[in-house]
Each structure stands twice: as structure tokens, then as C-alpha cells.
């Protein structure tokens, strides 16, 4: 499976995927987010991306910047494992000067739409949400 195929699989379920991060004790923390594929804002290479404000996910990813993200549709599934970069109000990413535009791009890549982008931007800023960019090291499926 290639990253673009993973993105198409995720899109079949409205971008809903399971993100797994590692806690300090080595156990796994997982949650459901919307994710999609887009060009990295600095390198231009395709990455998996999602937006989060969850203190568990962000804390784990800040300390251990690696994740596994699984998409499924019916009995088909695909997983992307890779290193993580975070871009947000508490996580400046060199080369990213406009976090609000990046958050909109990630949200859209994950299948999101919005009727009021100013309201979207205000919510993202108020919640201190961040974009998580996953550079694939492994992509595999059944």
C-alpha cells in the first residue's frame, strides 16, 4: 500500500482513523481523529496529517515523536507508521509561518468543510490546536 492509497481508504470513512501514541511507561494511548494526506508545508512531500488539541496525544508526540495511524473501511485496513512533526501555537515548526492556513489545509485534506472559516480559526486558536504531520516510514495493509 502507498500513502495515496491509504488516503483513499481513510476517505471512505470520512477520514476517521485511529491514532496510537506511546506513553512514558510504554503502553499505548489511542484515539479516533480525522486525518488525510497533503503536501508537507515545508518540504512538499506527501504526509499524513491531522489536527489535535488532546493533551495526551500532543504530550506523547512531543516526547516520543512517532505514531501509527490506522484507517479501515469494511474489512480492509491500512496503517501508516512514521515520525511526527507538530506545528501549532505551542509548537513552532521552522518554515511554517501561518499555522491558521495549515490547520485549514489539514482539516480540508481530512474531508472537513466549514461554513465560517473565521469561526473555525477562532476555535483552533482558542483550543491551541496543532497540526500533526506524519512522514511515513512504513505503510502496510491487509
UniProtKB/TrEMBL annotation:
What the entry lists under Pfam families is as follows:
PNPOx_N
Record's Gene3D superfamilies?
A: Electron Transport, Fmn-binding Protein, Chain A
Cite the SUPFAM superfamilies for this sequence.
FMN-binding split barrel
Q: Does the keyword Amino-acid biosynthesis apply?
A: no
Which InterPro entries does the entry mention? F420-binding_dom_put, F420H2_bilvrd_red/Heme_oxyg, Pyridox_Oxase_N, Split_barrel_FMN-bd
Keywords for this entry?
Answer: Oxidoreductase
Keyword Oxidoreductase, does the record have it? yes
Residues forming the Pyridoxamine 5'-phosphate oxidase N-terminal domain are 12-140
This chain's protein is named TIGR03618 family F420-dependent PPOX class oxidoreductase
| Lineage of producing organism | Bacteria, Bacillati, Actinomycetota, Actinomycetes, Pseudonocardiales
Amino acid at each position: 500500500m502507498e500513502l495515496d492509497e491509504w488516503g483513499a481508504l481513510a476517505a471512505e470513512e470520512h477520514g476517521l482513523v485511529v491514532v496510537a501514541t506511546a506513553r512514558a511507561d510504554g503502553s499505548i494511548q489511542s484515539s479516533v481523529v480525522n486525518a488525510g494526506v497533503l503536501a508537507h508545508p515545508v518540504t512538499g512531500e506527501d504526509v499524513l496529517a491531522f489536527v489535535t488539541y488532546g493533551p495526551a496525544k500532543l504530550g506523547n508526540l512531543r516526547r516520543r515523536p512517532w505514531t501509527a495511524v490506522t484507517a479501515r473501511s469494511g474489512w480492509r485496513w491500512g496503517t501508516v507508521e512514521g515520525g511526527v512533526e507538530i506545528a501549532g501555537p505551542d509548537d513552532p515548526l521552522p518554515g511554517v509561518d501561518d499555522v491558521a492556513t495549515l490547520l485549514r489545509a489539514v482539516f480540508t485534506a481530512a474531508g472537513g468543510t466549514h461554513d465560517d472559516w473565521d469561526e473555525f480559526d477562532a476555535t483552533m486558536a482558542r483550543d491551541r490546536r496543532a497540526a500533526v504531520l506524519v512522514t511515513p516510514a512504513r505503510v502496510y495493509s491487509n
